[in-house]
Design goal:
Chain lengths: ~100, ~500
């Protein structure tokens, strides 16, 4: 029983907007399964007294004061955008894929 | 649009509504949730962005301490427990309103949870359970181009302004609300209205519904009377005034009732409220695209508010709304019925502010529940958005107290203010509303009244002083209602020797 099915990989690919052919799914699904199994080894060595963590450093409460710092200019902000219009980021039609 | 809508009475006779409300509050911090960009409303597009809120590679977020403080205050004011340790999470989705392709939010570890609050409707108190209040960031603002009505459907492309992206947002989620069916919509409205007052008192948000700093999504489902099984719910968005909260909930109840009664199924979907037509329309169906693949945000460390900090903040909280209501009623000397009218009319805060300006509670109530409530009702606006505020009421009442206006003229002044005819002085001038309290003008009018009504004078002289009322009436008529009635009586009595 694989830890991730071919259907689940196809679902994830859709969520991530990655188009995969049937051949690619056949190829990638078992690989992902292997990767998950590999990462799963961590839980084999983790005893009950080791809590799960999401961060490498055991620190909390890193905060900043509520003060303003200079922003980018609109020109700088838009400089990396593939397209801009009226000082805004121009993006393709949003509902396209649902049509 | 073939679905029929039930009359609300018919719907409520067969089904019990179950509500859930999600309110988003933009905090009034100077800077964004995770970066130092300003949060001004209405700034030119993309002038308040930086690598962090644009999601540029390598940029690292840092939490705004004041936003956390505000979140804790909101949680405490809603009687929530405050997490000893909680994390942010990435909510992944593809939509260009967030340049990162995820929104930094909180998932299963909200900063505040398990709270409750109370609202009053028609003199009855309803307890509303709070599921959670969590921290997140607002999204950018999209403008859809090329469609017929500026809507996303039919648009050729969209333009995005990221000024709003990253502004601190608190999402407050209720548990399911089940109250008497005929009260459900009013309770929903009262809840959002109460939240606004609470957030204002906490000074954590501008709570301007018209500017989107307070936004409400209403979840509505129906279950057949007596059933324990919850029905399929819809989530109505874009409900942006107290009045539309009530209208949108009522509409969804009647719409779903009609669907169910005709044997149909309510779809689980997002619906959009249209203020102008008073209906909701189908947005997108909830689907697997809503699989947000939440995971803990690796670029932020956990937030662990110390108990000392939490208690410090608890000590700064303003009086609880229910305690405050009781206190104000006592101070103002209002009856239960009067207080109920004030609360139902959303006039509590305006009256508080008006009284603070030195106006008597009775006079403040008279104007807010009389002229102004009527105007709000007629124009379909909330009392707070009329454009006439406590300062205006105080200025008009001061003129009444000084004898420059009477109530009748004051009503005309309010009418002028509501119609935007200028300042109070300009309206008095242009409408000719000044009260005649000049002795000589009044005495002339009194003399005319006495000359014209010899029979009344006769009655008074023969020992019936009450008959003098007719003369006062005549004088006031002569002065087109603009006489100072107290002064007229005084002068007339002197003249008649009574």
């Amino acid at each position: 029983m694989p830890s991730i099915t071919r259907e689940e990989v196809a679902h994830l690919a859709r969520l991530a907007r990655i188009e995969l052919s049937d051949e690619e799914l056949d190829h990638l699904a078992p690989q992902l399964d292997q990767i998950i199994a590999l990462v799963g080894q961590v839980s084999e060595v983790a005893a009950d007294d080791i809590p799960p963590t999401s961060h490498a450093l055991p620190i909390t409460n890193v905060m900043r004061e509520d003060v303003n710092v200079p922003c980018l200019t609109p020109e700088q902000a838009l400089s990396g955008a593939p397209a801009a219009e009226e000082q805004r980021f121009r993006v393709p039609r949003i509902l396209d894929e649902e049509a | 649009m073939t679905a029929e809508v039930f009359a609300i009475e018919d719907a409520l006779a067969q089904y019990d509504p179950v509500l859930g409300l999600e309110v988003h509050v933009e905090l009034n911090t100077k800077s964004k949730m995770f970066c130092g960009c300003p949060t001004e409303f209405g700034a030119p597009p993309n002038t308040q962005t930086c690598p962090v809120c644009l999601g540029l590679p390598g940029a690292l977020p840092v939490v705004n301490a004041r936003a956390v403080e505000s979140a804790i205050k909101i949680g405490l004011a809603l009687n929530c427990e405050i997490a000893e340790w909680c994390r942010f999470a990435r909510k992944n989705y593809f939509y260009p309103d967030m340049p990162k392709n995820f929104q930094t939010s909180q998932y299963d570890e909200p900063i505040a949870f398990n709270g409750w609050t109370e609202v009053v409707v028609d003199g009855e108190t309803y307890r509303i359970e709070i599921e959670r209040a969590h921290m997140e960031e607002d999204t950018g603002k999209s403008t859809h181009v090329g469609g017929a009505t500026g809507r996303i459907h039919g648009a050729s492309h969209s333009l995005v302004d990221y000024n709003r992206a990253g502004i601190p947002l608190i999402e407050i989620v209720t548990k399911t609300i089940e109250v008497a069916p005929d009260k459900a919509a009013a309770v929903a409205r009262a809840y959002v209205s109460m939240l606004r007052d609470l957030l204002l008192a906490l000074d954590v948000s501008d709570v301007r519904m018209d500017q989107g700093s307070l936004r409400c999504d209403a979840n509505v489902s129906l279950k057949p009377r007596g059933s324990k099984v919850l029905g399929t719910r819809t989530e109505t968005k874009n409900v942006n005034s107290f009045r539309s909260v009530e209208r949108a909930v009522t509409y969804e109840i009647t719409r779903q009732a009609a669907v169910l009664a005709s044997g149909g199924k309510v779809l689980q979907e997002t619906r959009h409220w249209h203020e102008d037509t008073g209906v909701t329309t189908s947005g997108r169906e909830k689907s697997d695209a809503d699989d947000y693949r939440y995971f803990p945000e690796p670029d932020l460390v956990p937030v662990a508010p110390s108990r000392e900090w939490v208690e410090e903040l608890r000590a700064t909280l303003p009086e609880a709304p229910s305690t405050r209501r009781v206190r104000l009623q006592e101070e103002w000397g209002f009856t239960d019925l009067e207080m109920r009218d004030v609360i139902n009319g959303n006039a509590l805060e305006p009256i508080v502010k008006t009284v603070e300006l030195g106006v008597s509670p009775a006079a403040a109530k008279k104007w807010w529940l009389g002229e102004l409530a009527r105007a709000a009702n007629e124009s379909g606006k909330d009392l707070a958005d009329l454009g006439v505020g406590p300062v205006d009421v105080s200025n008009v009442q001061q003129r009444v107290d000084k004898g420059e206006l009477n109530d009748k003229l004051a009503r005309q002044v309010f009418d002028g203010l509501l119609k935007g005819e200028g300042s109070i002085d300009e309206i008095i001038e242009s409408r000719g509303l000044a009260l005649v309290s000049d002795d000589s003008a009044l005495i002339e009018a009194i003399d005319r009244a006495i000359a014209a009504n010899p029979d009344v004078v006769e009655k008074v002289n023969s020992g019936k002083p009450a008959a003098a009322g007719a003369l006062i009436g005549a004088v006031m008529k002569d002065l087109r209602g603009q006489g100072d009635a107290a002064k007229v009586r005084e002068l007339l009595n002197a003249k008649l020797g009574i």
